[in-house]
Amino acid sequence: MKILKRYKAIAMITTSLLFVACAHEDQPTESQLDFSQRNKTELDKWIDTGFLDPYNIKVYYEWNQNLVDNTRYLFPPTIDKVKPALEVVKKIWIDSYTTIGGADFVKKIAPREFVLVGGMNLNTNGTVTLGLAEGGQRVTLFQVDYLNKKSRPDVTEFIHTIQHEYVHILNQTKPFDAQAWAKLTPSGYTTSWYAEEIEDSRELGFITSYARLNIYEDFAETASIILTSSKAEYAAILASISDPVSRVNIQKKEAIVVQYYKDAFNMDFYALRDEAQKNTDAVIAN
């Protein structure tokens, strides 16, 4: 038995060596992988000049299944929609923060990747996801193909997404006073926020219905709605609220946001709002 086992072992070793030898002989003499990079288009060069070189922000607009949820029906943006969308992002978000926060503000605190998706990201509960911020490093923007730069509602909705997600990134860098915030409207938060009308949510002290998901979305919504509204538009929102306690609670949240920008980043929040509105006007006019 021992001899048989030994012969079998020798046979196995011999076979293995033959297999290795054959496998080695079959190996190509040159790599079959294509490491060449495609030539950059004029759009690529424009993106490098406006985003990658000054802010180290990489923009993905060509399809990459590793960057999106493959369980959703998503598709890449139409090429001629990419630059207009990025012009909105650059002018209203980056330029506004750069003017008020300083030349290096976005260079130091920013997502390092933008992923652009052409269509809607529909959820099973009937809502639509307009944007995602992943770990403060990547922001995905949906509905790029539907953006009309000449439409103020379109531009406002689109830039609201990046303003909202950027507030989350700022909060990850320096947290806001969550305890003080949580005391203002503790009973109004709900996971069924999407079933609530915005007018009803405002009567409970929330700037939008989505703000009712949790205190972190509440903060981001409060800040981003103010940033995407003119002074008069925001005043009209407050004036539309009949419950004086709820109106005051929204104003208290506003005050926390303003103080947060001052203490955390030495930034005048109202000046940032005015700059964003000026740049929004410029985008729509061009």
Strand order of the largest sheet: 1-2-6-5
What Rg is obtained from the alpha carbons, in whole angstroms? 26 Å
Low-confidence stretches: 1-25
Helix proportion range: 55-70%
Q: How would you sum up this structure, described in words?
A:
Helix content is 56%, strand content 7%. It has 286 residues and is α/β, with parallel strands linked by helices. The strands form two sheets. A four-stranded mixed β-sheet has the order 1-2-6-5, covered by helices on one side. A hairpin with a 5-residue loop joins strand 3 and strand 4 (128-129). The protein is globular. The protein starts with a helix and ends with a helix.
Task: Give the SSE map.
Blueprint (H helix, E strand, L loop, with lengths): L1 H25 L15 H14 L2 E3 L18 H23 L3 H4 L4 E4 L4 E2 L5 E2 L1 E4 L3 E4 L10 H22 L4 H5 L15 H5 L12 H13 L3 H9 L4 H22 L3 H17 L1
Parallel strand pairs: 1-2, 2-6
Antiparallel strand pairs: 3-4, 5-6
